Amino acid sequence: MYILTTSNLKKYYGQGETQVKALDGVSLSIEEGSFTSVVGTSGSGKSTLLHMLGGLDRPTKGKVTVDGKDIFSLKDDELTIFRRRKIGFVFQSYNLVPVLNVYENIVLPVELDGREPDKDYVNDVISLLGLESKLYSLPSQLSGGQQQRVAIARALAAKPAIVLADEPTGNLDSKTSQDVLGLMKVTADRFGQTIVMITHNEEIAQMADRVIRIEDGLVKGGGDDVENQ
């Protein structure tokens, strides 16, 4: 079953001779429960693709379907709610709130949605990521690897259909990167999450179940269920 699909996805900036085709007609399908990496050099279109998949930016043309919903058929406020409930984000810069402790950062998206966190589930995530002893620490008191684990826990807290990770190991050393990616794979398996990870690091990309390559806004490889239109 496909949890995420795109159809003829395009994102153009500018017009005429100066027009930039960040995405130029990408169609792909992501299996539920899979771990997919999208690899490409800087400027290849991979981050633009992630922003489209997560509904952070609207395409020039094309469709993105997440968990059966055409996300760009939604109005902005509806899309915000859908994104908060169905999509978890992990960024290179962690994006933790500096004045909140670890636990408060983890449950923040759920509380912003006006819901009570599932404490048993959240505690399972915290335990799996080895954060039990850091729950009352502020982000400034954590190492980079610990902050990224908090960001992963936060992304999982709302039980999203899909987790989108943008260069999640970009600020980490090699060993910590391997550890963080290993934990992401374990949590995905444990909680039935689907992960799409953007990276320029070939070694990191190979940890995924499937690698999609993007270049100049076009997919260059990644299996039978990927095409350009």
Description:
With 229 residues, this protein is of the alpha/beta class. It has a single domain, classed as Rossmann fold (3-Layer(aba) Sandwich). The chain is 33% helix and 29% strand. It contains 7 helices and 11 strands. The protein has a 6-stranded mixed beta sheet, with helices on both faces. The protein has a 5-stranded antiparallel beta sheet with strand order 5-4-1-2-11. The chain is globular, with a radius of gyration of 17 Å.
Sequence-ordered SSE layout with sheet pairings:
Elements: E1 2-13, E2 20-31, E3 35-39, H1 46-53, E4 61-66, E5 69-70, H2 76-86, E6 87-91, H3 102-112, H4 119-128, H5 144-157, E7 162-166, H6 174-191, E8 194-199, H7 202-205, E9 210-215, E10 218-221, E11 226-228
Parallel strand pairs: 3-8, 3-9, 6-7, 7-8
Antiparallel strand pairs: 1-2, 1-4, 2-11, 4-5, 9-10
Helix pairs in contact: 3-5, 4-5, 5-6
- The residue-averaged pLDDT reads 90
Spatial strand sequence of the major β-sheet: 6-7-8-3-9-10
Cα end-to-end separation:
22 Å
Structural class: alpha/beta
Total count of helical runs of at least 4 residues: 7
C-alpha Rg (nearest Å) = 17 Å
Oligomer: single chain
List key phrases describing it.
single chain, 229 residues, alpha/beta, Rossmann fold, 5-stranded antiparallel sheet, globular
In short:
The protein is of the alpha/beta class. It has seven helices and eleven strands.
